[in-house]
Design goal:
Length: about 280
């Protein structure tokens, strides 16, 4: 596995692969890798001869007071895991590589609409940071396919919107959420949970799944189901940010006939902010 931190190094490797007509699948991450990330790598392999993974803790997607400084940076372990998973290249850009003109002069890519609610409302500016860095990474790696996790449901919709709207020449693949046995979605931020919080944490997925079952049973009073979900999270010890039932394709309000729904939630548990979702076909 090649490890690169510069544009030049990456460029010459990509040129070589392209010369041999090899396709490239790309998995952007912030590191502190877990089995969810490795599943993205495995799926990436199904779509291309070459797999590039990036590890970059992007400062522009963290708000003031968020965990940018303390975000777990575990590059040695990540490198080992990616070697074993069979990635072909690990791109670990410096801030200068990612933002050569400096943050103050950096071009911002911003998707309106979809980014205004949910995680966008709780974390102002977060999605602008995500789309801006992902657009930069797409431009550097020029992949044929990029792979994202369903865990960050709103994020993958925002990226799909950006790719469509800018006619970027790549395909987005979304991979189902990888979970612990008790249902908790794997996340780099789960390490913030203490033992008591870790026992409460699977309640987020349990509550989402229960709502999904109600929908499948034919219940259509979305507001009442959202209220029950929020109350359930509170009763379990979470501080919920949102719990919502929306159209899976665009997060708009569903009418009663909508048959592809997503139930999505964010909730705080001690120092951790957990997000999760379930997609329901009714
Ligand atoms: P992150 O490093 O947390 O920014 O995540 C990098 C990529 O991994 C994103 O596309 C996430 O949606 C995806 N991801 C994170 N956790 C999981 C999980 N438990 N299952 C599947 N994909 C995940």
């Amino acid at each position: 596995m090649e490890i690169l931190d510069s544009r030049e190094g990456l460029k010459s490797l990509l040129r070589d692969w392209r010369h041999h007509d090899e396709h490239i699948a790309f998995v952007p991450t912030m590191g502190n890798l877990h089995k969810g990330h490795l599943e993205l790598v495995r799926r990436a392999r199904e779509h291309a001869e070459r797999v590039v993974v990036s590890v970059y803790v992007n400062p522009t997607q963290f708000g003031p007071g968020e965990d940018y400084e303390t975000y777990p940076r575990t590059l040695e372990r990540d490198t080992r895991l990616l070697r074993t998973a069979g990635a072909d290249a690990l791109f670990v850009p410096t801030d200068e590589t990612m933002y050569p003109m400096g943050l103050a002069l950096a071009t911002v890519v911003s998707v309106p609409g979809l980014t205004e609610n949910f995680c966008g409302a709780s974390r102002p500016g977060h999605f602008d940071g995500v789309t801006s860095v992902v657009a930069r990474l797409f431009s550097l790696v020029a992949p044929d396919v990029a792979v994202f996790g369903q865990k960050d449901y709103q994020q993958q919709l925002v990226i799909r919107h950006m790719v469509r709207d800018l006619s970027l020449p790549l395909r987005i693949v979304t991979v189902p959420t990888v979970r612990e046995k008790d249902g908790l979605a794997l996340s780099s931020r789960n390490s913030y949970l203490d033992e008591a919080e870790r026992n409460i944490a699977p309640g987020l997925h349990r509550t989402l799944a229960a709502t999904g079952r109600h929908l499948q049973d034919g219940k259509r009073d979305y507001q009442a189901l959202e209220r029950i979900g929020l109350e359930g999270l509170e009763a379990a010890g979470f501080v919920p940010e949102y719990f919502a039932i929306r159209r899976a394709e665009n997060l708009e309000m569903p009418d009663r006939d909508c048959d592809e729904l997503v139930v999505l939630a964010a909730a705080r548990l001690g120092k951790a902010r957990l997000i999760d979702n379930v997609v329901v076909t009714v």
